[in-house]
Amino acid sequence: MLPKPDFKVKRWERVPRLTKMQVPFGYEIDPDDEDWLKPIPKELELLELAKKHLKQYSYREVSAWLSTQSGRYISHAGLKSRIDVERKRKSLARIKRKLAERLEKAISQYEELEKERLGAYTLEDPD
User: Which residues of 36-72 are buried (b: 16+ CB within 10 A; e: fewer)?
Assistant: First the structure.
C-alpha cells in the first residue's frame, strides 16, 4: 500500500487547548495542565508524511494508513478537516505578513514626505 515512514527528529511544542470537545490528532492532554496539549512526535511526523502521500493517494487510503501506522484512529473527514485548517492558517499568516510589509513601506514613505515638505519642523525635548 503506502511506503514505510522515515523519521527525522523535530522539536514539537505544546499548544493551548482551545476546545474541550476533542483532542486533535498528534496531541494528547498534558497530565500536568489540562489547558495544554502535549505533542506526540511520532503522530505528528506521520501526519507530515501523510500530507505528502495525499498527492498520490485518496484521503481514505491515507487516513487508513495513518491509523495503522500510528495506532490511533483518524477518519478521512477528520484528516481532510485537519489539513484544511492548517492550510487556511498558513494562508492567513502569509496574507497578514504581506500586509504588515506594505504598512511598513507606507509609513516610511509618509515619514519621508513629512521631512521633505516645505516648512517642516520637529519637536525637541526641552532638556
Answer: ebbbbeebbbbbebbeebeeebebeebbbbbbebbee
Measuring CA to CA, which residue among 43, 65, 67 is closest to residue 53? 65
Tell me the chain's radius of gyration from C-alpha atoms.
24
Residue 5 lies in a domain: no
Asked if residue 111 belongs to a domain, the reply is: no
What pairing do the DSSP bridges indicate for beta strands 36-39 and 15-16?
antiparallel
Question: Residue 49's domain spans which residues?
Answer: 15-89
Given a contact cutoff of 8 angstroms between Cβ atoms, the answer to whether 49 and 3 are in contact is: no
Q: What is the pTM of this model?
A: 0.65
Question: For 7, what's the count of Cα atoms within 13 Å in the CB-facing half-sphere?
Answer: 11
Q: Read off the pLDDT of residues 10-64 as tens digits, 9 standing for 90 and up.
A: 778 888 888 777 888 889 998 998 889 999 989 999 999 999 999 999 999 999 9
* Domain count across the chain: 1
